[in-house]
Specification:
alpha/beta; Rossmann fold; 5-stranded parallel β-sheet; two-stranded antiparallel ribbon; about 50% helix; tRNA binding
Length: about 350
């Protein structure tokens, strides 16, 4: 299958492809299959290979997984800028060395960084991608919340890149079974919780998810999946266009929205915290309950503060008025991530 036409003077086709789904659903297998295609090059960014468990967990300190995800997203953006401009890959001034080193190692192993470039601590790394070839940066992670994928879409919009999503669908039983045979299995409780909370791409509701399809892991060989290849090609040839917001109208809408739902949201979040603490007694040690209650209360206060001053929409991919249930959903997302960290800390 031929890729988008390129020539010596043509702009390079660049795209971001998000692979999402439960752990052990088959995302990495699909990523490898995509890299064997001939229509475009692929830079595979596997979150599990870069943000290793020992990177963010220790007996004394357990920083937020979200912080490391944001760090990696920053590194990916620097990589995209280098690809767009033909410049060297510049290391961010503030970086987590372990994650940065893993990121550079992955790119070097795939041939995107010159082998004679100095070590991963260097501030400028020379790229050596195939000249003018179409390129997909494929992100392999669970991306089980819509907001996680929206952050990647924002990158595509910022740099006018192609954007698409492949949701790898596999039964929960299959995922659990395959996970048990992994070198680094995920805690089964984590997979079960993700299965309850995962948000499948919804093109009908979210315009930015229009280039999304569900791929069955038990289906035909990835290389022969015509729908996958057609989607990737279409996304490359139709990059996301940046749009300008009316700042004054947006600010006015924010203030009106915040005033109308603040009280209702406060009542709803109080109820959720109470229910969460009651359910947490069965899985969170007693010594951790007080700290969990404090973190949940702090999270509620922060969300209400953001709502009061109009910052809440920055965290949500909403195209219509913010409703109480939307903010409650955001609270649930952050709360579930917090619970996962507490449970992971006990493993």
């Amino acid at each position: 299958m031929a890729g988008p036409s390129t020539g010596p003077s043509s702009a390079r086709f660049l795209g971001l492809c998000v692979l999402c789904g439960l752990p052990a659903a088959g995302k990495s297998t699909l990523a490898q299959a995509l890299s064997r295609g001939t229509a475009w090059d692929c830079a595979l960014i596997s979150y599990d290979d870069i943000i290793l468990e020992e990177t963010f967990m220790s007996p004394l300190v357990m920083p937020s997984w979200k912080w490391y995800r944001q760090q990696l997203l920053t590194y990916i953006e620097h990589f995209l800028v280098a690809l767009k401009t033909g410049s060297s890959l510049s290391a961010p001034a503030e970086r987590k060395n372990t994650v940065w080193q893993n990121f550079v190692r992955i790119l070097k192993e795939q041939g995107f960084i010159s082998s004679d470039t100095p070590g991963s601590e260097a501030c400028h790394l020379q790229l050596k991608p195939k000249a003018c070839s179409p390129l997909y940066v494929v992100l392999d992670d669970n991306f089980y919340y819509q907001s996680m994928r929206y952050e990647v879409y924002q990158l595509a919009r910022k740099y006018s890149l192609g954007f698409c999503q492949l949701f790898v669908d596999s039964s929960l039983d299959s995922c659990l079974q395959r996970n048990r045979h992994r070198d680094r299995p995920v805690a089964e409780g984590t997979i079960l919780l993700m299965a309850e909370k995962i948000e499948i791409p919804n093109p009908e509701k979210n315009f930015w998810e229009k280039n999304s399809i569900v791929v069955r892991s038990e289906g035909p060989a990835w290389e022969d999946n015509l729908k996958v290849n057609c989607l990737l090609r279409m996304a490359l040839e139709n990059p996301v266009k940046e749009f300008q917001d009316n700042a004054e109208e947006k600010e006015a809408d924010r203030l009106v929205t915040a005033a109308s739902v603040l009280h209702q949201t406060d009542q709803a979040l109080r109820k959720i915290i109470s229910e969460t603490m009651r359910m947490a007694k069965d899985s969170v040690p007693t010594r951790e309950m007080k700290a969990l209650a404090q973190e949940l209360s702090k999270l509620k206060s922060q969300l209400l503060e953001d709502l009061r001053y109009g910052n809440i929409l920055d965290q949500m991919s909403l195209q219509r008025g913010t409703e109480v249930q939307d903010i409650v959903a955001l609270f649930h997302q952050k709360k579930d991530g917090m619970i996962l960290e507490y449970l992971a800390h006990q493993c």
